[in-house]
Amino acid sequence: MEQEKYIQAESEIKKKKGCFFWGLIGCGGLVLFVVISVGALLFFVRSKFIKYTSNEPIQIEQVSFPRDGKEEINKKIKKLKSASQKGGEFILTDRDLNLLIASNPQLKERVYVDFKNDKINVRFSLLFMKRYINGDLSGKLSMKEGLLKLEIDRCDVMGFKTPPNELRDKIASGLVEGLENNPEFRKIERRIEHIYLENQKLHIKFKPITGT
Question: By C-alpha distance, which of 167, 165, 105, 103 is closest to 134?
Answer without folding.
Answer: 167
